[in-house]
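Table S2 (text version). Query chain:
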Amino acid sequence: MRKVQIYVNNQLIDLFDDEKIQVKSSVQDINDIAKVFTDFSQSFSVPASEKNNDIFGFYYNNDLDQFNANTRVDCRIEIGLTPFREGKLQLEGGIVKHNQADAYKVTFFGDVVTLKDKFGEDKLSAIDYSSLNFSYTAANVKTSIESATFQDVRFPLISSSRVWTYDTGGASAQDISVSPNAIAYTELFPAISDAKILSLIASHYDVTFTGNFLTDDRLKNSYTWWKNREETSEITTRAIDLTFNPLNSTCNTSIPNAIGVSKVNLSYIDLSNVTAPADWSSWSSNSYYIVNLQVSPQASGTYVVDTYINGALTLSTPFYTSSALIEIVNVQYNNFGLDDTYTFKIRSLTGGFDIDFTISLTFRSWYTNTSNVIGFEDYSCQFSNTQTLPTDMDFSALAPDIKVSDWFSGTLKEFNLTCFPVAPLTFQVEPVEDWYANGGLIDITEFVDPEKIEVDRVKLYNDISFEWQKSKSFINNGYLDVNGKDYGSLKTLFPENDGGKYQIKLPFENLNFLNFDTINNNLQVGFSLTNAPDYKPYVPKPVKLYINEILPCSFYFHNGTTFEEIENYVPFGQSTTDNYAQYSMNFGSEFDTLTLNPVNNSLYKTYYEAYLVNLFNSKTRKVTLKCILPTAVLTSLQLNDEVLIRDKTYRINDMTSDLTTGVVQFVLLTNLSSKRGRYAVHDVPAGSGDTVSTVKYPINSPLGGYVTIADPIGTKFITTSPTIPGTFTGQFKLEITVPVNTTGSARYQTMLVTGYNSSGVVVWVDTIIISQAASDFFLLTESGGYLLQENLDKILL
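Corresponding structure-token output:
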């Protein structure tokens, strides 16, 4: 038996000598390829010893109530003092035998569960977006449309109010090619980069996300449309707290704490402590509070005052005049136990301006005077201040109606990403195939129990569909009518399999765009409008969008004062450019609405195909076996390591480890897509003038190992960052700068990247090839499009 140590909140707990403790580990399971799994254990028992009673607060005795079993607590597991896993421990309950406490039942969960616990039921609106600081002005909206530099916030050309047209000469009343019908900046909703959203989520929940993919243009150029209402007329600026200082308030001494720091306190007042009027005889029981808020903007504007009671929003009052008096509380009786805190926020619908405000609180106490007449005495507090309303957008108020956990898991599914802990509250996020490619190779042949090895066929689905949420846009509906399927979806059939159907459905909407297809114009737009003839605006499911490279165009834009012609814009749609290749946000190989050419690098082909092709290969087997792994091997084995048994390599589908005996049951899958001998080719344009090209290649060394990058073979014409040759650890991006090709001939540069494990054994070898054309001129068809090869590549002159 091996000695296992379990720490709960850094306290070592007692264990039974003969208790079996198993931990099952899996990341992507053949039975549910769209889910990310984590370590978990079967429930096991620990003794109700004196030490454990203290740690678990004598949970079996509910009179004490010292331990909250509804909350998972920090936990780590060691085997022979060697770290094995970190995560959370759930106390399931206690066992009492013969009126004596005997044991506690507990379950261990890995750190990814910790992440889910942190998200809870929160929605995207709960995240703090104040760091974006985007002022909702025409100038900023215009910049987001035109700028070639990366922007966290952009405004896609998607209409939620009218059907834009592009008819030369302005034949249509909605023709945006003429100034009278210009797109007003107030027609557009914003979108936020998915990479930025992940960063804000990490900051909000005090976790860290790492991985090369987080800075990959395929993620940075993916945006979520920030819309949760039909039209933009309700877009508000960021709300601010009304701030006031009790030290500067005018307050009756009988209610000294009624105004606190930026809050109003309504608490029970013992009338015996109140200064009585001169003709007072006795107090009546009907004393109460009245709270008023006087708001006076120093400029005309529309604004909303939000009232919170004990932190909960209870009243939102909009005003469209220059001044207003809000009676926040008419009557709040002075009942015993009263303890309410009122706070206030204010937000503008029409930009930033200064406001004056006065908070008034009155405590009215009824009494009987010496003449036996009932009257009242008012005890008042008052505070006045001036504040400036910001012009920053209130992204919380505009956030799509979706849980943080659903947005996060949906994004993982979209790009087939895995998320796994690498340190406490630090999670690596990367595509599944990249994660597998950076694993090690572990030979477990000598540890395998030969008594029974099961080799089974893989029972798989014969119909896998990749789907988005159904869109109400009339453009999407038109595509469905013509093609018989939803835009961007894909159904992959494996008729030779005897399994059923499996559906991967994202919680997002995929919006089809309309390309006006005019001469010398690259303009495409989207519509959040229903079918003709109504063309009603609607609130979509969260919409995912890609941006592409800046292009020339022509349409008119209204900045609130004048008309301007936009001559360059960054188009939104379903395609993006990364390392000179086009990638699509569609699952299938659709024609790109921007270029009118097919984009083969779909979500399926880029992120799912390699895994599924290996899985569905007729040579793939599911192998189930047992082995006894040494502690050093068990504690270092990672789920993306390849397992070598004799002359065959396998991927780990799942492994169940008995920590006390070292017996591990593996479910393995034949790996026919070995990472050895892999290579990447990057086709780089020749360039012109002083233009240079940069290729970014993500590298992640094997866990605990390192990589070496050799000098390029042949005459070196590239430069790199970091400088090569060299030896490197961890993860980074190799930036390869390719100068303009003035040689008149195509040229190539080849580099070897070798990954080693911690023992210095080669794990994988990459060959990076930079292929640079002699020129950037391509053959055209008579219609002006590109003449394509059979593989859909353009043909160079």
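Notes on Table S2: The mean pLDDT is 86. The longest strand covers residues 82-97.
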